[in-house]
């Protein structure tokens, strides 16, 4: 609880939508956006990207206010923007690369090609994930089995391609440079483009 005569201000990620209940919250300010992991078609990698939330997420955020006492939710977007939102968020397993999931499942002895997912991803995504792991030397055979390298790679909480780069960078003595490149590839562009200064931003980068 906050000291007498003082307000408690909580700045949170979307984990507070459903996973955490914080006592004493009377007001919620909903920005209408969320940072999610999604597949980048150009690089073929997963990145953290800021996107609009769904209606279900908006109502979850509204529900954080007034759980223990009367409260209000202030949304920083219009009713029209709310009406254009998706009804439900897309499950992560249907919008991200499955290479990491396949590696983790194989590490515990589960074949991803026959696993019964709750939100079943397209078969093409599963095939691409297995092919990716084969190219990296992490799996071999049919059904796919982990190699010694794959077993080591499964210990890293990273995209398997990033893990392979890290392991190779130790051998080539360029770990610091590899970490920098991986950090840059893991998020959106490091260049800021304010809407009102987009042309100036493009000119500065040209």
TrEMBL record:
PROSITE patterns from the UniProt entry: HELICASE_CTER (PS51194)
Protein's GO biological process: positive regulation of transcription by RNA polymerase I
One Gene Ontology term, aspect cellular component: nucleolus
Acyltransferase among keywords: no
Keywords: ATP-binding, Helicase, Hydrolase, Nucleotide-binding
Cross-referenced Gene3D superfamilies: 1.20.120.1080, P-loop containing nucleotide triphosphate hydrolases
Helicase C-terminal domain ranges (all copies): 1-109
Catalysed reaction equations from the record: ATP + H2O = ADP + phosphate + H(+)
The keyword ATP-binding is assigned to this record: yes
EC number of the protein: 3.6.4.13
GO molecular function, one term: RNA helicase activity
Top EC class, one word: hydrolase
SMART domains: HA2 (SM00847)
Entry-linked Pfam families: HA2_C, Helicase_C, WHD_HA2
InterPro entries: HA2_WH (IPR048333), Helicase-assoc_dom (IPR007502), Helicase_C-like (IPR001650), P-loop_NTPase (IPR027417)
Name of the protein in its database record: RNA helicase
Organism from which the protein derives: Bracon brevicornis
């Amino acid at each position: 609880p906050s000291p007498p005569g003082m307000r408690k201000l909580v700045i949170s990620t979307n984990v507070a939508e459903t996973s955490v209940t914080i006592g004493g919250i009377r007001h919620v300010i909903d920005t209408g956006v969320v940072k999610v992991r999604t597949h980048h078609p150009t690089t073929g990698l997963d990145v953290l990207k800021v996107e609009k939330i769904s209606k279900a997420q908006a109502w979850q955020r509204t529900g954080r206010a007034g759980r223990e006492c009367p409260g209000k939710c202030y949304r920083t977007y219009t009713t029209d923007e709310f009406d254009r939102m998706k009804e439900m968020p897309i499950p992560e397993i249907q919008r991200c690369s499955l290479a990491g999931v396949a590696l983790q499942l194989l590490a515990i002895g589960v074949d991803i090609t026959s696993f019964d997912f709750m939100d079943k991803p397209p078969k093409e995504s599963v095939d691409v994930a297995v092919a990716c792991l084969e190219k990296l030397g992490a799996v071999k055979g049919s059904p796919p089995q982990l190699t010694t390298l794959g077993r080591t790679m499964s210990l890293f909480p990273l995209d398997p391609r990033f893990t392979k780069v890290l392991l190779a960078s130790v051998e080539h003595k360029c770990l610091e440079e590899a970490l920098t490149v991986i950090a840059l590839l893991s998020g959106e562009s490091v260049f800021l483009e304010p809407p009102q200064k987009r042309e100036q931003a493009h000119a500065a980068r040209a």
